[in-house]
Amino acid sequence: MMTERRKRREWTLLAVVVLFWFAQYVYIPYQTPFLTGKGVAAGMIGTVVGAYGVTQMIFRLPVGVMADWAGRHRIFVSAGAALAALASMVRLLAPGGMGFLVANLIGGCASSMWISYMVLFSEYFSAQEQQKATSRVIMACNLGMCLGFVFSSLLYARTGMAFLCASGMAAGLLGLLISLGVREADENTGTEKRKRGSRYGKKEKGRVRQLLQICGNRRLILFSCLALIQQGIQMSTAMSFTTQRLEVLGASSLYIGLASVFYMIAAVVSAQFASTSLCEKRGARFYVPVVFALTGLYCVLVPLTGSRMLIFLLQAFPGMSTGILLSYLTSESMKEVPEDKKSTAMGFFQAVYAVGMTGFPAAAGALTERWNMTAGFGFLAVAAFAGLGISCWYYRREGKSGARQRN
Predict the structure, then answer these.
(1) In this structure, how many other beta carbons lie within 10 angstroms of the beta carbon of residue 319?
(2) Cα–Cα dist 307/167, whole Å
(3) Residues whose CB falls within 8 Å of the CB of residue 13, separated by 6 or more in sequence, listed in order
(4) Residue 114 pLDDT more than 60?
């Protein structure tokens, strides 16, 4: 009975996750081509794309601290869905560069609540199942994005951007309605989860400084910086300038949409793979460097090739980055975090990678506008290979340390 109830609550939260990310990303495949068609400069487009990360940099850590302090996540889940609907409404009412800029700032506020989605879902699982939990909730996230991309690919040419934004608003409102049925972990499991409202909610009052001390954890800082690189590249390429590259090569709006759909299918499949025991056999030590290497190769090839089909197939690489790499970077960053500080740590992790989501698209857009697209992608390739080098160094150092301890 308890297991059935827990499963029901898990699926309720996953449904909200899917609707939330559908609302946040249904317009993404056509954002850059749409704004380019409106006469918006490449530098401004980079700023619009990067604006999505600005509010996340500001709010994600405070949201994490508040969630740990209050001991409740449900209100943040509902707030995220409501803000996602509001962002889509702004795009609908002001379909231009400035309107999209404001909407992306609001959308960033919505995504700041993603902390509570992830932490709450992870609390439905035991400590030994945290990698599985992380991969499952990221898979649901990717599924929502994928459905949004499929939806927009099929309908954009016929209906335009306004219909996509209206659909995003509807999905956000439906997610808000369903979120009213989401329950905290301690309300529906018989395991020894922390009693968030009674135990930690009261205990942590006036102890914000103690919560923030976790932000000095070296492992958390390292993997947050690696996620900064991963998210910055993803936001600059598959979510932005890769679609512009396809447009330059003469791809139709349907083709651009299908390329984005293929990217998200790869993300969903790879996130599911990351939750399996087969993937866990090699683990983070193998997959983190490998996927960084493939991401760097992607950034080198996209601006150099003149083949639309090759770019289409290369979309599998950022899909693996979104599915496998982000799953491992998230779970690896949380390994040394106490349960009662997990929201704060997740807030720090996501605030740091939001720097990449903001800075990388702006930098790539500025380089593209000043020189060409090859320069913008070249910057991203250097960042990817830096991630490869840092991760190899870390796991080699960790392996040597483990060997010394065994001896």
Answers:
(1) 24
(2) 33
(3) 77, 117, 120, 121, 124, 182
(4) yes
